Amino acid sequence: MIRKKVLIFGASGQIGKYCIRRLVKNNFRVVAVTRNTHQKGYILKTQAPIGFIDIVEAQIDDDVKIKRLISENDICINLVGILYEKGKKSTFKKVHTHFPEKISKFCKEEKKNFIHISALALEKAKDSKYAISKIEGEKKIRENLPEATILKPSIVYSVDDNFTTRFMSILGLIPFFPLYYSGKTKFMPIHCTDLIDIIFYVMTKKINSQIIECVGPEIISLEQILKKLLNLIDKKRVLIPLPLFFANLSAQFFQLMPKPLLTQDQLRLLKYDNILSGKYKSNSEIGIPSKRIFDQEVKKYCYMWKEGGEFNTSKYDPQ
Ligand SMILES: NC(=O)c1ccc[n+]([C@@H]2O[C@H](COP(=O)([O-])OP(=O)(O)OC[C@H]3O[C@@H](n4cnc5c(N)ncnc54)[C@H](OP(=O)(O)O)[C@@H]3O)[C@@H](O)[C@H]2O)c1
Fold first, then answer.
1. I need a labelling partner for 29 at 20 to 30 A (CA). Which of 100, 199, 201, 219 fits?
2. For a pLDDT cut of 70, what percent of the chain falls above it?
3. pTM
């Protein structure tokens, strides 16, 4: 028997795909929203058996369609997010502030549950447009719908991420790698499956009106992460601490790329540790501690970045 209908905005991303798979496995029906069904239809369709997923195309400014979708479903999850701005439509303010504000308002009107994914450690980053827009989005949600639950994850990793996979690709190509802020910034990386455990728990245990910080079991610095990745892909590279002036110059150059490796805004954000603030409850405190250890999880897919790529035989090694 199909349980409830869950509407997911930003369903085609890393967290979205894991979320769909978990929900349909547990007999929920998913309505996955994307801006482009031609581009994302295949990815979305292959996450769920027939009959468990509907794919809908909608733009974030299409209020009529968004309101109708919310009214037709039981629970709404917002996973829409960007790391850099692009054009007039895809700005931090529109995506991270106005869109969550709108969904929370519609969820209030339609009396629906709302789970919003924001990000960890934004509060101190007052010089980052990304952080300000996400914080503003959180505030608007709290004003419109205090019953909503906001999850604030540290960096999320998996074989589908843009973090470990991208770092491993770059580390494989260049002989050295810059260490921004001497690589001292701390993270608590959380595996995507662990984050989905939390989302699922919040949904099924009907946890409302909470802000929860979601972190993995370890605190690891950027330098340690890079060293772990290098070790996992059997590569030796020089890690060079980059003075801020040159870091800024490199970010200015990188942000000219269509998919920037680093922007000046991200560089500013990187200054602040991405760890528990103590201001909100953590996932451990609500009874869902993360179990997955960074090295052990990345080991399962890092063979693709080793010598021989996908044909590297270490994938057959016992984990
Ligand atoms: N990944 C992390 O490490 C991490 C850490 C902390 C917080 N978060 C937050 O968690 C949420 C989900 O993360 P994720 O890693 O799954 O992100 P993702 O892989 O980048 O996916 C985000 C989705 O948002 C949609 N999207 C992107 N730009 C949009 C725009 N301008 N208008 C409307 N939709 C847009 C895209 O869907 P379509 O292209 O199909 O429309 C995309 O699939 C985001 O809010 C992110 O900020 C992520």
1. 100
2. 98
3. 0.96
